[in-house]
Design brief:
Rossmann fold, alpha/beta, N-acetylmuramic acid 6-phosphate etherase, Etherase_MurQ, single chain, 2 domains, five-stranded parallel sheet
Length: 272
């Protein structure tokens, strides 16, 4: 049986289509992704709850993947310390070929059966942590062998795959199977599978960070003040929360304490 991710596209003779037809058909396929994710939200929620539980107990979270999905997981992870003010090393990504080779697209590395587990050993993976495999096919050796080793050592595992009943799902305590169907270009899982992965990474990290108290109301109160845009956003946030009318005063307080949350905590102390 042909895996869903390798099944023939619903469209053909693409080279004869107009630009208008191609974009319309691609958009038609993309609109299916959110609906598919809606159908697997219970599985996503189970995975998120497991991640939150591990992180609250001082464990760590690791994505492990190759290809487009692995690279997307890296992009999600590297933004979290700035956006949510978390220390580096809490949310992590292991990429086939290494994160330092992100732009090289070393697709051949996905067949390496030892590299994934060796990378986890290098960060001293242990049962306090959780490892989530990323593989559209659900068969990527780099991911599969690492998850097998994790389970042998009672390390909690999860996965995001795009085919049903895969070997990687079988090695996952918290599998998420997002069946987005055949790709617009046959086998090109950077398309709908990649879109689903990106949406899930956003959903997982945002929800986890919220449940860890990194968000208040709907604001990034722990965001790192790394550029003028973020400083300006933080100043306005502080002005609203602390009812400060003077921009420069709020900016001075914010910069003195590093985050909106830190500034608010200090202001509360002063008023008590």
């Amino acid at each position: 049986m042909i895996p869903i991710t390798e099944q023939s596209s619903l469209y053909d003779q693409l080279e004869n289509k107009s630009v208008e037809e191609l974009t319309r058909y691609i958009n038609q396929e993309d609109t299916k992704v959110a609906k598919v994710i809606e159908g697997v939200l219970p599985s996503v929620n189970n995975l998120i709850n497991a991640i939150v539980s591990k992180l609250k107990a001082d464990g760590r979270m690791f994505y492990i993947g190759a290809g487009s999905g692995g690279r997307l997981s890296v992009l999600d992870v590297i933004e979290l310390p700035t956006t949510y003010g978390i220390p580096k090393g809490i949310f992590n990504a292991i990429l086939a070929g290494g994160i330092d080779r992100l732009a090289d697209a070393l697709e051949e590395k996905e067949d390496d059966v030892n590299e994934g587990w060796n990378a986890l050993l290098n960060v001293e993976i242990n049962p306090n942590d959780i490892v989530v495999g990323i593989s559209a096919s659900g068969t990527t050796p780099f991911v599969l062998e690492a998850l097998k080793k994790c389970r042998e050592l009672n390390i909690t595992t999860g996965c995001i795959v795009s085919n049903p009943s895969t070997p990687i799902s079988a090695q996952s305590d918290y599998p998420v199977e997002v069946l987005t169907g055949p790709e617009f270009i046959t086998g090109s899982t950077r398309m709908k599978c990649g879109t689903a992965q990106k949406m899930l990474f956003d959903m997982i990290s945002t929800t986890v960070m919220t449940k860890l108290g990194r968000i208040e109301g709907n604001n990034m109160v722990n965001v790192k003040l790394i550029n003028d845009k973020i400083v300006d956003r933080g100043v306005k946030m502080l002005m609203q929360k602390a009812e400060i009318e003077n921009y420069d005063e709020a900016k001075s307080i914010l910069l003195a304490h590093g985050t909106v949350k830190g500034a608010m905590e200090e202001l509360v102390k002063k008023h008590n």
